[in-house]
Amino acid sequence: MQIVIINSNATELYVIHKILYQIKDIIYYYMSASENVRYIKIQKIGEGAYGIIYKAQDVQTEEIVALKKFKLSDNEGVPSCALREISILNQLNHPNIIKLISQIIINKKLHLVMNYYDMDLTEYLKFNHEEFHLKNIIYKILLAVEFIHNRKIIHRDLQPNNILITNNEPVLIDFGLSRVLSPNMTPGVTQLWYRAPELLSNCNTYDYAIDMWSLGCIIAEIALNKPLFMGSSEIHQLLLIKNIINGNEWFLHNSQFAKLNNLFIDLINVCISLEFLEIIIS
Amino acid sequence: LNQTFLQNENDKDSQIGGFSAETLQALMLQEIEHFPNPDYMVSIQTQLSPKVRAILMDWMIDVCSVYNMKRDTYYLAVAYVDSYLSKKSIPKVDVQLLGTASMLIASKMEEVEAKHVSEFERAANHGYTIDQIYQMEIEVCTVLQWHLNLPTINLWIEFYTNQWDNFITDIQKKFRAN
Lengths: 282, 178
Known about the structure:
The complex is a heterodimer. By secondary structure, chain A is α+β, with helices and mostly antiparallel strands.
């Protein structure tokens, strides 16, 4: 059974909610008795090439969870992004990385059950927060990324939308693009604004450094409250990166970074260092 | 190995055989946790013999080399076969199906562009239908409890050869100093 609420205003929603709340136990009883239904879909949250993400409720524990649905197509079987995501999440156990509660196959569809959080970093940054909280978030993200890199895994899709915030603590999600480090990989990963120069120049022998680049962009975004490089195409993105560099001295000429602490600029510089690119050019 | 490990334990940034100490620790824990049962031929399997496994491995490496797959892909597939066999007994007829499904999963996990199922179907000489391969794929995943990032033999060979290289360069340095 699937409950979808479309275009309802607040009062209608309230009424529906009230009715549902009253007959909740009855519905749950019949559903759990009739089939092996464990989760009820409440709402669609997101959609991608891989499948659809739903907000859902666990019938047994009444917990709100996120359901990620993959279709097992005739063309491919279990999609490779699903295989990688499940196997990677299964081996990661860290407070700042999303937990995979279980994976179930119903009617040739693979569902991943994960914890549900309702706010991501982009939304979080729309409000004003104390510096202490922001620093804490940056620190915890760095710890989480170090944790996955220590297990030879590259995330490859770090961006503010993939960092959820709950009680001022970050949670890393979406390992659909991540994989174990290998000598040959596809360069078409990461969202354009957070894509490292080696990926932009179509290099397929990159390593953990691409995650560090994305992290640098995210940290700068937290500090500036807007994305650092907002390119419209790959060439434009490279141009923006080139414009902000003045030789090897980063940002120091740039007035928008004047208010930041020197240590902070150093941190961004370490993340967004061009050493790798220089090796390629020379 | 133990000596070098202990020597470098205090130094956090040191690299052992190309891995940092923490990576090595994580990989070793994984290896201990998912190590296949060494005598599954006797204790778990009823219809198989070591010779059957050898024939399967030969066929798999043939397929992998014909389709130009990475070396890691083959060893990952071998790891899946071994851990499946050490958990569940299968009839002799399905051994090749298990190998095919393992190669399919491994190619999806490791290759940049995964090979299509029909190619594996052709490699198995159409002995199994595509639906059967898909079914086996899901079964392998569930039996392994979706722990598909296994440290392969190839990784450990790399680890030991890197250490050997370091050892040789050290000796050469000493030799030149004298």
